[in-house]
Amino acid sequence: MGYKTKHSDEVIHFLDATRGEHFTAADVIEHFRSRGSKIGAATVYRQLDKLVAGGTVAKYVLDSSGSACYEYLGGSEECHRESGRCYHLKCTVCGKIIHLHSPALDSVTLGIAQENGFDIDCIRTVFCGICKDCKETAGENND
Fold this sequence. Notes:
Structural class: alpha+beta
CATH class of the largest domain: Mainly Alpha
Order of helices and strands: HEHHEEEEHEH
Shape: globular
Largest sheet: 3 strands, antiparallel
Strand order of the largest sheet: 1-3-2
CATH superfamily of the largest domain: Winged helix-like DNA-binding domain superfamily/Winged helix DNA-binding domain
CATH topology of the largest domain: Arc Repressor Mutant, subunit A
Strand content: 15-25%
C-alpha cells in the first residue's frame, strides 16, 4: 500500500472491525465523521482505491447506478475460498448483501464454462431479491 499514515492506519482499523461485512465509502466516511475524525471523503476514497489495487479490499459494483460496496479481505475466507466461487444476494429492500456458497450454482457456472467457453466472475455475480428479515417484517405488517 506504500507508506503508512495516521489516516491509513485508521482506515485499516475500521476495516478490521468490519471484517466479513460489506460497506460503502459513505459508511466509512460516516464512521469517521460520527467520531469527530478529520479524515475527509477524498482521503477515504483514495485509501479504498489503494487497498483495492493492492488486493486487500474487494470492490463490488452491484447495480447500474455505479455505486459500489467494499469488503475487507484481510485474512477473510468468505469470498475467497479454495474453490474461488462466492456469489452474493442483495436485498432490494434493505440493501443487505449476503455471501452465498452453492454447489448447485458452482455446477451451473462450470457447465457454462465447459459448454460455452465463458467464465463467469462468480464473486461479482449478484442475485437480487428480498432477504428473510425483510420478508418477516413485511409479513408482520400484513397482520
